[in-house]
Write a structure and sequence with these properties.
It holds the Pfam family IGPS. The protein is an alpha/beta fold. Helix content is 41%, strand content 16%. The longest helix has 19 residues.
Length: 272
Amino acid sequence: MNILEKIVARKKEEVSESKKRVSIAQLENSRLFTRPTISLATALSDAAAPRIISEFKRKSPSKGIINDQVTPAQVTRDYVAAGAVALSVLTDTDFFGGSFADFGSAREANTGTPMLRKDFMVDEYQLYEAKSIGADVILLIAACLSPAEVKSLSRKAHELGLEVLLEVHNAEELSECLTDEVDIVGVNNRNLKTFVTSIETSVALSEQIPASFVKISESGLQGADEIVHLYKHGYKGFLIGETFMKTADPGAALANLQLELTQHSNLNPLVL
């Protein structure tokens, strides 16, 4: 059993346990459930330069502890101040050290910024959870789901007012799982079975994603040169977590990257 299979198996156990503790009706009665969501797809499609989706991530299965010395409220507030178009916050506890508490702290600190619940979604129940904690976008990982599950979960997400980011790793996942029900297509440069990363994954898939979808690139992004290279291949958003989180001041790391991006004269300056 590879790491992805282990995560999904554990996630299904978690969902089963959560359903026994908290009903959907209780989730629907939560304070944030009726909160109007903010469109990440619109923010990205209107962008005239690369935009950064900054992630709060404490640890990962491949790297172990990345940064356990900072708080989600401060880091995400700094991210937004440095120009992040959106925030991604891990809510998986066992493998990534995330929690609903982390997400809630970031949500409270950044009420006007689109936020992605970063987790392994395998059940409709998790969509109600996402809505209840103030998420705007949910992640569907093609490697974890069948095409039918991608479609049904996307439809339910839209019913709840949530946007859908479909994550793919190769051409097969893209062709099998891409549906008009999703809003954003993310190409993960990290192979979730081996955890090896290569931005050439995004390059190879760029022309296979229809222009009607907003495209983002995820994982393994190290600097402005790589981002500009992928921007020229049609990617509008770039999800970055570990590169920022492994520093003592993740917000400052984003600010430095934004400065590097503005120095590329062939791109429109970012509005920070």
